[in-house]
Specification:
- By secondary structure, the chain is of the alpha/beta class.
- The protein folds into two domains: 2-193, Rossmann fold (3-Layer(aba) Sandwich), CATH 3.40.50; 198-326, Rossmann fold, CATH 3.40.50.920.
- It contains eleven helices and 14 strands.
- The chain has a seven-stranded mixed sheet, sandwiched between helices. A five-stranded mixed sheet has the order 9-11-10-13-14, with helices on both faces. Strands 1-8 form a two-stranded antiparallel sheet.
- It is globular, with a radius of gyration of 20 Å.
- The protein starts with a strand and ends with a helix.
Length: 328
Amino acid sequence: METMSYLEAGRAALSDEMSADPDVWALGEDLGRGGVFGQYRGLAEEFGPERIMDTPISEACIMGAAVGAAMMGTRPVVEMRFSDFALCAIDELVNQAAKARYMFGGQTRVPLVVREPMGMWRSSAAQHSQSLEAWYAHIPGLVVTAPATPEDNYRLLRAAIRADDPVVHLEHKDLWPVEGALERTVTPPGAEEFGRARIARQGGDLSIITWSAMLYRCLEAAEALAAEGIQAEIIDLRTLWPWDKATVLESTARTGRCLIVHEAVAVGGFGGEIAATVQEKVFSSLKGPVRRLGAPRVPISYAPPLEDMVRVGTEQIITTAREMMHAK
């Protein structure tokens, strides 16, 4: 076991895959300098500029080149710098990469990974702070991962690189310094990593479903609730497509209460899909309505006090959980 930061775990995953497979390479802006957050630091020196490739400032160009290279048999890892910037390459990803395997009757595949740093981080403002995971989960043909821990960033990124379908790998910028233990393996994690949630904390009174950076606020809330005698079960989805319906439904049927927490805007958020599924599948076990917590439908501000107003906080989770427990 090693102790690594979330950022270092992502770098280790890419390094391990590139060492194991010469067809794995990365492309994007400023990778030769280590990437905008340092997540590629040292890789250009280790693997050379043909495998850690700097590109023009054109997301459509980057994604288009990667789609073609993937269809020709390589495994590109695309760095988009910020998830917001990937919108400039949405046609190449959504209309080409996601659909090619189906439209060509399985005669081709597009094994590429799109790394998209997401979420609110240090006053990054409206064009650098969005959480757009629901957009990608909506698109047939895409796998969507959202790791919350260093171990999951390592395991899910390696699994994504091994996958034969395009994967959108969402790394939360606020998690870069978070440290944790992980085991670097010679055998890469496979597709079994997708669609497998993790019960981060066990409890019998309330099921809280979350992913990415919100995991830590939910865990903080669960500790405070435990002091009041409320035992919340925290489920970290890890991947949003596929998502682990079995674990969520089993937990909710057992506790009778379901709260979904995400940083993304609540309107049209992936929490709505989870809520609808829970309502449809375990309605008779529910002791009250399914609740969701997400951001209001407003742009994210630069000013920290305004940024905090749209961020789902620990106290908001605690208050909502209390209301659910005491509802008649």
